[in-house]
Write a structure and sequence with these properties.
The protein is mainly alpha-helical. It is 57% helix and 5% strand.
């Protein structure tokens, strides 16, 4: 695929302004009719340049953002669920779609594991059968756990995408697929605590 070149031509005054703003650890931007170009100094980047997808960032900060409530699962599990989901969103923001989907799977597996431990009495990782996500869902159903409408289907869809992302599938997820999995994960987290 041929790359489309993007050139920023700066006057000496604009270049000096960039240097002055960066010296203060600030960003600078220029408005154009259809877009805004923003340059920022990010001291966390070791070398090179990162192209931030601001549209994704705005979407994740305004729409995808969700904080799992603290009174539903034990504190350590809640912390892990929150961490996994927030990292999934950061991966999505940075076009790391495999990572986003894998972390969405981890988020759901963590919630399912806690539900499994509540209902069955043992953490799935300590169960002699070491059940996977679908086996946990099926076992919880057999044991009488009632999933809210469409929750089980969303979990199974996340599990399918997670398995393809983690287990060597040659298919690379698209932006839309990753977005769908992140939204489904948020929906599952919201429905799980109802």
């Amino acid at each position: 695929m041929e790359k489309t070149p993007v050139t920023l031509a700066l006057s000496y005054a604009a270049f000096e302004d960039v240097c002055a703003q960066f010296a203060l650890n600030r960003w600078i931007s220029w408005d154009f009719p259809d877009y805004v170009i923003k340059l920022e100094l990010d001291p966390t980047i070791e070398s090179g340049v990162i192209h931030r997808h601001e549209g994704r960032r705005l979407e994740s900060q305004r729409i995808m953002d969700y904080t799992f409530p603290s009174n539903y699962l034990p504190e350590d599990i809640t912390r892990l669920v929150r961490l996994s989901y927030s990292e999934a969103i950061r991966c999505y923001e940075n076009s790391c779609f495999l990572g986003a989907i894998a972390l969405c799977g981890r988020t759901i597996e963590t919630v399912l594991g806690a539900l499994y431990e509540k209902k069955i009495g043992v953490q799935p990782s300590r169960d002699s059968q070491k059940p996977g996500m679908n086996a946990i869902i099926n076992r919880l159903s057999k044991e009488g756990y009632t999933f809210p409408a469409s929750l089980k289907e969303k979990m199974e869809c996340i599990a399918l995408h997670r398995n393809m992302a983690v287990h060597g599938s040659l298919v690379i997820p698209t932006d839309d697929e990753a977005r769908s999995v992140v939204y489904s994960t948020r929906d599952v987290l919201q429905m799980a605590v109802q």
